[in-house]
Protein backbone atom coordinates (compact mmCIF):
# COMPACT_ATOMS: atom_id res chain seq x y z
CA UNK A 1 0.00 0.00 0.00
CA UNK A 2 1.34 3.44 -0.93
CA UNK A 3 2.08 5.79 2.02
CA UNK A 4 -0.79 8.09 2.86
CA UNK A 5 -3.50 5.89 1.31
CA UNK A 6 -6.26 4.37 3.43
CA UNK A 7 -8.13 1.90 1.23
CA UNK A 8 -11.92 1.73 1.24
CA UNK A 9 -12.41 -2.00 1.21
CA UNK A 10 -15.36 -4.24 1.85
CA UNK A 11 -15.66 -4.97 5.59
CA UNK A 12 -15.26 -8.66 6.36
CA UNK A 13 -16.43 -8.80 9.96
CA UNK A 14 -18.76 -7.10 12.44
CA UNK A 15 -18.69 -7.03 16.24
CA UNK A 16 -22.12 -7.99 17.60
CA UNK A 17 -22.79 -6.70 21.12
CA UNK A 18 -25.28 -9.33 22.27
CA UNK A 19 -26.13 -7.64 25.56
CA UNK A 20 -25.27 -4.69 27.77
CA UNK A 21 -25.33 -6.87 30.90
CA UNK A 22 -21.96 -7.34 32.61
CA UNK A 23 -20.83 -9.03 35.83
CA UNK A 24 -17.74 -6.81 36.18
CA UNK A 25 -17.34 -3.07 36.76
CA UNK A 26 -13.82 -2.25 35.58
CA UNK A 27 -12.85 1.41 36.21
CA UNK A 28 -11.19 1.72 32.79
CA UNK A 29 -14.04 0.21 30.74
CA UNK A 30 -14.89 2.31 27.66
CA UNK A 31 -18.49 1.07 27.99
CA UNK A 32 -18.86 2.37 31.53
CA UNK A 33 -22.27 4.00 31.87
CA UNK A 34 -23.67 1.90 29.01
CA UNK A 35 -23.32 -1.52 30.62
CA UNK A 36 -25.93 -2.72 33.11
CA UNK A 37 -25.23 -4.76 36.22
CA UNK A 38 -28.81 -5.79 36.99
CA UNK A 39 -30.61 -8.38 34.87
CA UNK A 40 -33.89 -6.48 35.24
CA UNK A 41 -32.35 -3.45 33.46
CA UNK A 42 -30.43 -5.36 30.79
CA UNK A 43 -30.98 -5.10 27.05
CA UNK A 44 -30.44 -8.37 25.17
CA UNK A 45 -30.69 -8.84 21.42
CA UNK A 46 -33.91 -10.75 20.80
CA UNK A 47 -34.25 -13.80 18.56
CA UNK A 48 -36.40 -11.76 16.18
CA UNK A 49 -33.67 -9.14 15.91
CA UNK A 50 -31.04 -11.81 15.40
CA UNK A 51 -32.92 -12.84 12.26
CA UNK A 52 -32.77 -9.22 11.07
CA UNK A 53 -29.04 -9.15 11.79
CA UNK A 54 -28.44 -12.35 9.81
CA UNK A 55 -30.39 -11.00 6.83
CA UNK A 56 -28.39 -7.77 6.99
CA UNK A 57 -25.09 -9.64 7.19
CA UNK A 58 -25.99 -11.73 4.14
CA UNK A 59 -27.16 -8.68 2.21
CA UNK A 60 -23.85 -7.02 3.10
CA UNK A 61 -21.85 -10.06 2.06
CA UNK A 62 -20.44 -10.58 5.56
CA UNK A 63 -20.08 -14.10 6.90
CA UNK A 64 -17.84 -13.52 9.90
CA UNK A 65 -18.66 -11.98 13.30
CA UNK A 66 -17.22 -11.52 16.77
CA UNK A 67 -19.55 -11.71 19.78
CA UNK A 68 -19.18 -9.12 22.54
CA UNK A 69 -21.07 -7.31 25.29
CA UNK A 70 -21.38 -6.38 28.17
CA UNK A 71 -20.54 -9.97 28.85
CA UNK A 72 -21.82 -12.08 25.93
CA UNK A 73 -21.91 -15.25 28.04
CA UNK A 74 -24.70 -13.65 30.09
CA UNK A 75 -27.04 -13.53 27.11
CA UNK A 76 -29.81 -16.02 28.01
CA UNK A 77 -30.04 -17.40 24.45
CA UNK A 78 -26.39 -17.43 23.45
CA UNK A 79 -26.34 -21.15 22.58
CA UNK A 80 -29.38 -20.94 20.30
CA UNK A 81 -28.02 -17.71 18.79
CA UNK A 82 -24.73 -19.39 17.90
CA UNK A 83 -26.57 -22.36 16.40
CA UNK A 84 -28.64 -19.99 14.27
CA UNK A 85 -25.54 -18.13 13.08
CA UNK A 86 -23.80 -21.41 12.21
CA UNK A 87 -26.89 -22.67 10.40
CA UNK A 88 -26.71 -19.55 8.22
CA UNK A 89 -23.00 -20.08 7.47
CA UNK A 90 -21.93 -17.16 9.67
CA UNK A 91 -18.51 -17.90 11.18
CA UNK A 92 -18.00 -17.03 14.85
CA UNK A 93 -14.49 -15.63 14.49
CA UNK A 94 -14.11 -14.70 18.15
CA UNK A 95 -15.82 -14.17 21.47
CA UNK A 96 -14.80 -11.29 23.75
CA UNK A 97 -15.35 -12.27 27.38
CA UNK A 98 -14.15 -11.60 30.93
CA UNK A 99 -13.91 -15.35 31.55
CA UNK A 100 -16.45 -15.38 34.39
CA UNK A 101 -19.32 -17.18 32.69
CA UNK A 102 -20.51 -20.68 33.51
CA UNK A 103 -17.81 -23.26 32.76
CA UNK A 104 -20.26 -25.64 31.08
CA UNK A 105 -21.27 -22.83 28.74
CA UNK A 106 -17.66 -22.31 27.64
CA UNK A 107 -17.27 -26.04 27.09
CA UNK A 108 -20.39 -26.27 24.96
CA UNK A 109 -19.61 -23.20 22.83
CA UNK A 110 -15.98 -24.27 22.44
CA UNK A 111 -17.12 -27.63 21.13
CA UNK A 112 -19.65 -26.05 18.74
CA UNK A 113 -17.40 -23.36 17.27
CA UNK A 114 -13.71 -24.08 17.95
CA UNK A 115 -13.50 -20.30 17.84
CA UNK A 116 -10.99 -17.75 19.13
CA UNK A 117 -11.46 -16.32 22.61
CA UNK A 118 -10.28 -12.93 23.83
CA UNK A 119 -10.31 -12.89 27.62
CA UNK A 120 -9.68 -9.58 29.38
CA UNK A 121 -7.99 -10.15 32.73
CA UNK A 122 -7.34 -7.51 35.38
CA UNK A 123 -5.10 -7.65 38.44
CA UNK A 124 -5.89 -10.69 40.67
CA UNK A 125 -6.61 -8.29 43.54
CA UNK A 126 -9.77 -7.13 41.72
CA UNK A 127 -11.33 -10.62 41.97
CA UNK A 128 -12.80 -12.52 44.87
CA UNK A 129 -11.18 -15.90 45.60
CA UNK A 130 -14.17 -17.65 44.04
CA UNK A 131 -14.01 -15.48 40.89
CA UNK A 132 -10.28 -16.09 40.42
CA UNK A 133 -10.81 -19.84 40.73
CA UNK A 134 -13.63 -19.68 38.16
CA UNK A 135 -11.51 -17.63 35.75
CA UNK A 136 -8.66 -20.13 35.93
CA UNK A 137 -11.04 -23.04 35.50
CA UNK A 138 -12.45 -21.46 32.35
CA UNK A 139 -9.01 -20.58 30.97
CA UNK A 140 -8.11 -24.24 31.32
CA UNK A 141 -11.14 -25.09 29.15
CA UNK A 142 -10.16 -22.51 26.53
CA UNK A 143 -6.39 -23.00 26.54
CA UNK A 144 -4.56 -23.08 23.24
CA UNK A 145 -4.82 -26.38 21.39
CA UNK A 146 -3.09 -25.47 18.12
CA UNK A 147 0.59 -25.94 18.95
CA UNK A 148 0.87 -29.15 16.89
CA UNK A 149 -0.82 -27.81 13.74
CA UNK A 150 1.30 -27.74 10.60
CA UNK A 151 3.09 -24.49 9.79
CA UNK A 152 2.92 -25.50 6.12
CA UNK A 153 -0.85 -25.52 6.25
CA UNK A 154 -1.56 -22.71 8.67
CA UNK A 155 1.41 -20.33 8.31
CA UNK A 156 3.76 -19.06 10.99
CA UNK A 157 1.79 -16.07 12.34
CA UNK A 158 0.64 -17.31 15.74
CA UNK A 159 -1.97 -14.55 15.96
CA UNK A 160 -3.99 -16.43 13.32
CA UNK A 161 -3.84 -19.56 15.49
CA UNK A 162 -4.30 -17.88 18.82
CA UNK A 163 -7.49 -19.69 19.90
CA UNK A 164 -7.03 -18.22 23.38
CA UNK A 165 -5.77 -14.66 23.55
CA UNK A 166 -5.45 -12.90 26.89
CA UNK A 167 -6.00 -9.16 27.10
CA UNK A 168 -4.71 -6.39 29.36
CA UNK A 169 -5.66 -2.70 29.42
CA UNK A 170 -3.09 -0.20 30.66
CA UNK A 171 -4.34 2.89 32.50
CA UNK A 172 -1.84 3.48 35.33
CA UNK A 173 1.86 4.26 35.53
CA UNK A 174 3.93 1.32 36.78
CA UNK A 175 0.92 -0.97 36.29
CA UNK A 176 1.52 -4.61 37.16
CA UNK A 177 1.41 -7.02 34.23
CA UNK A 178 3.30 -10.05 35.56
CA UNK A 179 0.04 -11.82 36.42
CA UNK A 180 -1.06 -11.95 32.76
CA UNK A 181 2.39 -13.15 31.62
CA UNK A 182 2.11 -15.95 34.18
CA UNK A 183 -1.41 -16.86 33.01
CA UNK A 184 -0.28 -16.92 29.39
CA UNK A 185 2.53 -19.34 30.26
CA UNK A 186 0.28 -21.48 32.44
CA UNK A 187 -2.41 -21.87 29.77
CA UNK A 188 -0.05 -21.99 26.77
CA UNK A 189 -1.39 -18.75 25.33
CA UNK A 190 0.87 -17.50 22.48
CA UNK A 191 -0.62 -13.99 22.20
CA UNK A 192 -1.48 -11.20 24.63
CA UNK A 193 -3.53 -8.30 23.34
CA UNK A 194 -2.67 -5.01 25.02
CA UNK A 195 -4.04 -1.49 24.79
CA UNK A 196 -4.43 1.71 26.73
CA UNK A 197 -7.78 2.77 28.19
CA UNK A 198 -9.87 4.79 25.75
CA UNK A 199 -12.51 7.27 26.97
CA UNK A 200 -16.12 6.18 27.40
CA UNK A 201 -18.63 8.38 25.51
CA UNK A 202 -19.43 10.39 28.66
CA UNK A 203 -15.82 10.05 29.91
CA UNK A 204 -16.80 8.62 33.30
CA UNK A 205 -14.11 5.96 33.16
CA UNK A 206 -10.37 6.12 33.84
CA UNK A 207 -8.82 6.81 30.45
CA UNK A 208 -5.50 7.84 28.98
CA UNK A 209 -5.06 11.21 27.29
CA UNK A 210 -1.90 12.22 25.40
CA UNK A 211 -0.05 13.57 28.45
CA UNK A 212 -0.78 10.42 30.43
CA UNK A 213 0.19 8.27 27.47
CA UNK A 214 3.73 9.69 27.54
CA UNK A 215 3.99 8.69 31.21
CA UNK A 216 2.68 5.21 30.39
CA UNK A 217 5.20 4.61 27.61
CA UNK A 218 7.87 2.99 29.84
CA UNK A 219 5.49 0.31 31.14
CA UNK A 220 4.23 -0.41 27.60
CA UNK A 221 7.79 -0.92 26.32
CA UNK A 222 8.71 -3.04 29.35
CA UNK A 223 5.60 -5.17 28.85
CA UNK A 224 6.41 -5.86 25.19
CA UNK A 225 9.99 -6.80 26.12
CA UNK A 226 8.75 -9.20 28.82
CA UNK A 227 6.39 -10.85 26.33
CA UNK A 228 9.21 -11.35 23.83
CA UNK A 229 11.45 -12.80 26.54
CA UNK A 230 8.74 -15.37 27.34
CA UNK A 231 8.12 -16.11 23.62
CA UNK A 232 4.67 -14.54 23.73
CA UNK A 233 3.48 -12.32 20.89
CA UNK A 234 2.25 -8.89 22.13
CA UNK A 235 -0.44 -7.40 19.89
CA UNK A 236 -1.63 -3.81 20.36
CA UNK A 237 -5.38 -3.41 19.86
CA UNK A 238 -5.66 0.22 18.80
CA UNK A 239 -3.64 3.12 17.45
CA UNK A 240 -0.74 4.76 19.25
CA UNK A 241 1.01 7.90 17.92
CA UNK A 242 4.51 7.68 16.47
CA UNK A 243 5.70 10.87 18.13
CA UNK A 244 6.00 9.59 21.71
CA UNK A 245 8.49 6.91 20.66
CA UNK A 246 12.13 7.11 19.65
CA UNK A 247 13.26 5.65 16.33
CA UNK A 248 14.80 2.72 18.19
CA UNK A 249 11.54 2.04 20.05
CA UNK A 250 9.52 2.24 16.85
CA UNK A 251 11.79 -0.27 15.10
CA UNK A 252 11.40 -2.58 18.07
CA UNK A 253 7.58 -2.24 18.13
CA UNK A 254 7.26 -2.76 14.39
CA UNK A 255 9.41 -5.89 14.57
CA UNK A 256 7.80 -7.51 17.60
CA UNK A 257 4.30 -6.04 17.89
CA UNK A 258 1.62 -5.17 15.34
CA UNK A 259 2.10 -1.45 15.91
CA UNK A 260 0.00 0.94 13.81
CA UNK A 261 -1.13 4.57 13.97
CA UNK A 262 -4.19 4.86 11.71
CA UNK A 263 -7.47 3.24 12.70
CA UNK A 264 -10.33 2.02 10.54
CA UNK A 265 -13.95 1.39 11.62
CA UNK A 266 -14.56 -1.50 13.99
CA UNK A 267 -18.26 -1.69 13.01
CA UNK A 268 -19.89 -2.28 16.39
CA UNK A 269 -23.49 -3.54 16.17
CA UNK A 270 -25.34 -2.78 19.40
CA UNK A 271 -28.47 -4.43 20.94
CA UNK A 272 -30.69 -1.65 19.51
CA UNK A 273 -29.48 -2.69 15.99
CA UNK A 274 -27.52 0.52 15.47
CA UNK A 275 -23.99 0.35 14.10
CA UNK A 276 -21.18 2.62 15.37
CA UNK A 277 -17.66 3.33 14.09
CA UNK A 278 -16.45 2.36 17.54
CA UNK A 279 -18.10 2.66 20.92
CA UNK A 280 -15.75 5.42 22.09
CA UNK A 281 -17.00 7.66 19.26
CA UNK A 282 -20.68 7.30 20.18
CA UNK A 283 -22.26 10.74 20.41
CA UNK A 284 -19.61 12.21 18.11
CA UNK A 285 -20.15 10.23 14.92
CA UNK A 286 -23.63 9.25 13.70
CA UNK A 287 -24.88 5.69 13.97
CA UNK A 288 -26.68 3.75 11.24
CA UNK A 289 -29.62 1.34 11.35
CA UNK A 290 -29.07 -2.06 9.76
CA UNK A 291 -32.51 -1.98 8.12
CA UNK A 292 -31.53 1.06 6.05
CA UNK A 293 -27.97 0.52 4.82
CA UNK A 294 -25.47 -2.22 3.99
CA UNK A 295 -22.27 -2.61 5.98
CA UNK A 296 -20.19 -1.47 3.01
CA UNK A 297 -22.14 1.80 2.69
CA UNK A 298 -21.83 2.35 6.44
CA UNK A 299 -18.10 1.76 6.23
CA UNK A 300 -17.69 4.31 3.43
CA UNK A 301 -19.70 6.87 5.42
CA UNK A 302 -17.66 6.26 8.56
CA UNK A 303 -14.41 6.78 6.66
CA UNK A 304 -15.73 10.03 5.18
CA UNK A 305 -17.09 11.31 8.52
CA UNK A 306 -13.81 10.68 10.32
CA UNK A 307 -11.69 12.55 7.77
CA UNK A 308 -11.99 15.87 9.60
CA UNK A 309 -10.72 14.28 12.81
CA UNK A 310 -8.10 12.13 11.10
CA UNK A 311 -6.75 15.08 9.09
CA UNK A 312 -6.93 17.65 11.88
CA UNK A 313 -3.46 18.72 13.00
CA UNK A 314 -2.88 18.80 16.71
CA UNK A 315 -0.15 21.31 17.69
CA UNK A 316 2.42 18.53 17.93
CA UNK A 317 1.46 17.30 14.41
CA UNK A 318 2.67 20.50 12.73
CA UNK A 319 5.62 19.69 10.50
CA UNK A 320 5.52 16.01 11.48
CA UNK A 321 6.82 13.73 8.71
CA UNK A 322 4.59 10.82 9.72
CA UNK A 323 1.45 12.95 9.93
CA UNK A 324 2.12 14.72 6.62
CA UNK A 325 2.63 11.35 4.93
CA UNK A 326 -0.63 10.15 6.53
CA UNK A 327 1.21 7.33 8.29
CA UNK A 328 -0.09 8.55 11.66
CA UNK A 329 -3.37 10.19 12.63
CA UNK A 330 -1.92 11.84 15.73
CA UNK A 331 -3.60 9.61 18.37
CA UNK A 332 -7.10 8.29 19.08
CA UNK A 333 -9.86 10.01 17.07
CA UNK A 334 -11.88 10.51 20.24
CA UNK A 335 -9.03 12.53 21.72
CA UNK A 336 -8.82 14.66 18.59
CA UNK A 337 -12.61 15.17 18.58
CA UNK A 338 -12.45 16.42 22.18
CA UNK A 339 -9.58 18.75 21.30
CA UNK A 340 -11.57 20.22 18.39
CA UNK A 341 -14.60 20.73 20.64
CA UNK A 342 -12.56 22.52 23.32
CA UNK A 343 -10.99 24.83 20.74
CA UNK A 344 -14.43 25.60 19.31
CA UNK A 345 -15.73 26.49 22.77
CA UNK A 346 -12.70 28.74 23.42
CA UNK A 347 -13.31 30.60 20.16
CA UNK A 348 -16.97 31.11 21.07
CA UNK A 349 -16.04 32.58 24.46
CA UNK A 350 -13.39 34.83 22.83
CA UNK A 351 -16.00 36.26 20.43
CA UNK A 352 -18.44 36.74 23.32
CA UNK A 353 -15.82 38.67 25.36
CA UNK A 354 -15.10 41.02 22.44
**Count of beta strands:** 10
Integer average pLDDT:
90
At the first level of CATH, the class is Alpha Beta
Biggest β-sheet strands, sense, barrel: 10 strands, mixed
Alpha-carbon distance between the termini? 49 Å
Q: Main sheet: which strands, in order across? A: 7-6-5-4-3-2-1-8-9-10
**Large-scale geometry:** globular
Q: How much strand content do the residues show? A: 5-15%
Order of helices and strands: EHEHEHEHHEHEHEHEEEHHHH
Low-confidence stretches: 1-5, 348-354
Can you count the helices? 12
Structural class call reads: alpha/beta
Walkthrough of the structure:
By secondary structure, this protein is α/β, with parallel strands linked by helices. It has helices at residues 47-60, 78-87, 103-113, 129-142, 151-154, 178-186, 210-229, 247-256, 295-305, 307-310, 321-324, 333-353; strands spanning 14-17, 64-68, 91-97, 116-120, 164-170, 191-196, 233-236, 268-269, 274-276, 288-289. Strands 7-6-5-4-3-2-1-8-9-10 form a 10-stranded mixed sheet, covered by helices on one side. A hairpin with a 4-residue loop joins strand 8 and strand 9. The longest helix has 21 residues, at 333-353.
